[in-house]
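anyone seen this seq b4? input:
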Amino acid sequence: MKNDGRDGGEIQSPRQRPGGAVQKLTQFSSGLSRPFIQRPVMTMLLTVSVLVFGILSYNQLAVNDLPAVDYPVISVTASYPGADPVTMANTIATPLEKQFTQIPGISLITSSSSQGNTSITIQFDLSKSIDGAASDVQSAIQRASGQLPADLPSPPTFTKANPNDQPVMYVALTSDTLTDGELYRYGTTEVAQRINILPGVSQVNIYGVKGAIRIKVDPGKLATRGMTFDELAAAVKSGTAYSGAGQFDGKNKSFTLRPQGQLDTAEGYRDLIVKRGPNGAPVYLRDVARVVDGVENERLSRHFFVRNFQPPASVIVFAVSRQAGANAVQVAKSVRALLPGLQRELPGSIRLIPVFDRSQSIVNSLHDVQFTLLLAFALVIFVIFVFLGRASDTLIPTVALPMSFLITFVAMWVLGYSINNLTLMALTLAIGFLVDDAIVFLENVVRRAEHGESILKATLNSAGEISFTILSMTLSLAAVFIPLAFMPGLLGRIFREFAITIIVAILASGLVSLTLTPLMCSRILKERGAGHRKTWTERFVARFFNPIRDAYGRTLHWFLDRGWIAAPVLIACVIGVWFFFKQLPFTLLPTGDSGTIRGFFIVQEGASPEQQRQLQAQLDPILQANSAVDKYFTVAGRSGLGAGVFTVLFLKDKSERGDIDTVAAQLRKACSGIPGVLPTLNPQPVLQINIGAAGSQFGRYSYVISGIDPNEIYAAADKLGAKLRDYPGFASPPRS
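predicted toks r here
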């Protein structure tokens, strides 16, 4: 068929394609490139627009370790001071669970009851909206309120939980002179509130103990004065109740009455009158009890260690979490920028110490992927230059690659995606695909030019000859990743950004190859008539590559003449692949080296807080003796099956220590010598994906055993633990 007459050329097709949809698609693809070749100003304006919007979109993308996924998980907590774990389970957990089971769309409910506290985690189907789930949970709590203890201090609370959302940063507040309660007050009023209002911060969890007035009653003195515990509690409650006293209106002025009923010091409580004797003599609280300033939970013991510093007397730790979709790196930068100003406002006896910044591991991980991306880009361009032999020819696919990336960045910003390990991995994998279309078009133009056509005519003819091929290549390659984009389940949601990113990048490369690449070919390539002079690169590659090509041809002919060899070679390859595949370890994501080790030192069930504090004191010199440990904090005094010492260890820089798995093994071995203690220390993964809400806090894997009779469940758990201990690779599986 003839062209429009402006170039005098003729677009020829190698063969007549069938009619119908394929023919229409062929005509569309062949005609797509012509306007961009013939209107260079329009093409350059569109290119500049893509360049500007791509750069702006890239700068607006959040930086995180993994895609932001909205998990339908709700965490419910309730507090009932003084109640034992069994009471918490029977009076609080059970009524709540009965109401929660009536909510549609629940896939799993787990609960844990300890001394004075109950925690219930509800996991919904992935199709369930997190906002709808929160509304249903709130209604269920209201329905269960009539079945909960009447003296419950406060109703149960719930929060939207993300099992994979780790805190962005840990900050410690320490003091050598203040008590735990005083330090906690500074932490909540001066530090936590200031951090919480920073952009991108969702919440600040405080690991410490609140200050409290502790009344330690002497039963003998109480009986002597004819009082019971209930009467004393009622007297203290009524004596410290705060209520408005109204207003006094004088002749010339009005006064607001402010009764001093609310007490906040132990000294004020000591002089509280709790009863009057038969003769009217007052009975003070100090007469029947010892009143001291203390903390709400005296069982908990916290130790904090920073190498080359004296351990502080009091410490609390803040865990800063980001909002969904917020830039984790920017949130950490904001917190770090705030800390010096906060330190100047605090008393000199209080120190703010950045304990751990997870954004550093995110940045390091992303830098590794970015380096791989740039290296792959450089290698691809080098190979293209070697085989094309001309810098001007190499420029065409070189420009096509970043243009495809810029279009992808615009799509990522529109879709609300972030720069994370998965999207960068998608771009890295796509590099080899993105230049294929441009190279195919370029090679065809060069081939036609070498047969005597002008560059413009060769470009127009190539557009009609192989545009359909480029379009079919692009669509077929993108179709390979479509199933991954629609994969069901939690993993499908996580890897959706990966799939969509690589699909968009491939489609963008096809678009660039049909628009910008033809224009660049028509304007940049030089005429190549018969007998044109080859560059030194072309001559060198020909001398080097031609013998290899000839050797390959001879080898191929040899194998074609002996076709029977293909069967045993194929069988050997299949066996080899199967053998080496079985030797490889299986994991969803590599652990990496985050520089953080978490774990528990589990003691026998029923161990007292004093026994746990003794264990905590034994662990301090062992943990400090390992030179790889830079900071750590431990918490002892937990009750129930999880009794023991919880710890988080922060290691030195990678250049100053060994592999993190080696350090964890050294610490486990050093701590295993303590009698009656089961150490579970595991490296914190750089990329962590928990499948469901029932993740294990003791190790990397967890097994759930369910049943009706608790004794049968515990017996089955013991049998499973014994079998796992005999299996190579498991290190002391605990029961929880």
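The longest strand covers residues 106-114. The CA atoms of residues 603 and 675 lie 9 Å apart. kinda curious what u guys think
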